[in-house]
Amino acid sequence: MRNQPSRVTSMPVFSQTITDFWRASFLNGDVLYSDESLTVTINPDLDEESRVMVLETSDGRVMAVLTPALAEKVGLHLHQELSEAIFRRKLDEANVTLHGADYLFYFSEADKIELLQETLEGDLRRLTEQDNACFSAFQSSASEQDLDDAQVELDHWAVFGSYEQNRLVCAASMYPWEDDLQIADLGVLTLTSFRGKGHARKVVRSICKYAYGQGYVPQYRCQLDNHSSTLLAKAAGLTLFGKWEVISPDSAN
């Protein structure tokens, strides 16, 4: 059943770049099982670090993809009745652990149009290597945990910052998510004492507008338990696309 059409429907509210990417990620290969709520695909071309992935889109439909070797290990085969619960139980029984899920946020097509027409106000701009001194001061004022979570770096593909009284207090950076893929993944960090003032929302919208101008679709990811980041995504006008899980680096082979 090579490349059998799935019953999972795409969500036209998002750009074709996004829907095509995720459908290709999960539906290229042999469809092992498919019903109105779950599709499981076997793909021998998956990278080792993504040898099993699960995506639950915001409409509640679930797609899973895994390598033939992993499918054999967990006991999956054709003509087998499956559900998400059964699939996850088989992973557990085979000691295959998924990493904590990420929320995936994107601009809907309607919100993209609104963003591109917007003129953002405030003391914010694109940062370059000439801003190394203020960026270093910004990093030194943040906790190691915040820096690790945000992954905002001055040498990324695009960096934007917001200032208050000539001090950099919020920054976001982006980089192309994969080679030859027009999706730019972003991280954002606001210094603790300057949160709740709208800096992050403006910086996120500014860098996303820039990305669109360069032909990229901005992508916002965060862990499910990062409630402040989830609220920021929504405040910045992004819409939840789904929850994405990959195999944990510590999982059994």
Automatic annotation (TrEMBL):
Gene3D superfamilies linked: 3.40.630.30
Signal peptide: none
Annotated TM spans: none
Pfam families according to UniProt: Acetyltransf_1
Domain N-acetyltransferase: 113-253
Top-level taxon: Bacteria
InterPro entries for the chain: Acyl_CoA_acyltransferase, GNAT_dom
The protein's name: Acetyltransferase
Organism (species): Brevibacillus reuszeri
Upper lineage: Bacteria, Bacillati, Bacillota, Bacilli, Bacillales
